[in-house]
Every structure is written in structure tokens, then in C-alpha cells.
Amino acid sequence: MLGWLLLGALFTAAVIIICVSYLDKKTAMNKLREKSIHKGVVRDIFQSGNVTHIKLDAIDTDGNEKEVEFEADAYNSYEIRKGMTIVA
């Protein structure tokens, strides 16, 4: 039974990955708007090799929760910080 619950949770979780070369607040707002995301909160920022991963907990225009991950070569650390809210 637990296996079916975990499998169901795996299919309901929506992850959107957006790749950009440079990420600032304006670029993030535009990319979220393109994916029909209303707003997102930066949950985590970490480096993997030469790529920075920025994870957001987001809500789409229908009110559904989504996980959004930006993969960027560089980002503006003054505009994109952990805990900030980006409204598209």
C-alpha cells in the first residue's frame, strides 16, 4: 500500500526545469509567466560544477503547487536570494 502512495506522489509532483545563461529577477519573472506560474519562493540555491541550480516552490495560475528549477550559468546574487518571492 505504501508503494502505491509513493508512486502516486511521484506522478502528482510537477517539476519544471528552465535553463538560462544569466538569471536576474526580470528574466525569472518572464520565464515563470511563460510557464503559467503566478509566483514562486526561492527555496534553495546551490552550485553543481559550472551550473547554478535555483529551486522555487511555486503556484501556477490554476492554484496548483509546482516545483520550478532554474539552471543558470550565472545569476544576480543581489536580486535572487533564498527566501525571496518572485511574482510573475
Task: List the defining traits of the structure above.
88 residues; alpha+beta; 5-stranded mixed beta sheet; 2 helices; 5 strands; 51% strand; globular
Residues in helices, as a percent range: 10-25%
Relative strand content:
over 45%
Largest beta sheet, briefly? 5 strands, mixed
C-alpha end-to-end distance: 39 Å
Overview of this structure, please?
The chain is an alpha+beta fold and 88 residues long. Helices cover 24% and strands 51% of the residues. The chain has 2 helices and 5 strands, in the order αβαββββ. A 5-stranded mixed beta sheet has the order 1-4-3-2-5. A hairpin with a 2-residue loop joins strand 2 and strand 3. The longest helix has 11 residues. The N and C termini lie far apart (39 Å). The mean pLDDT is 87.
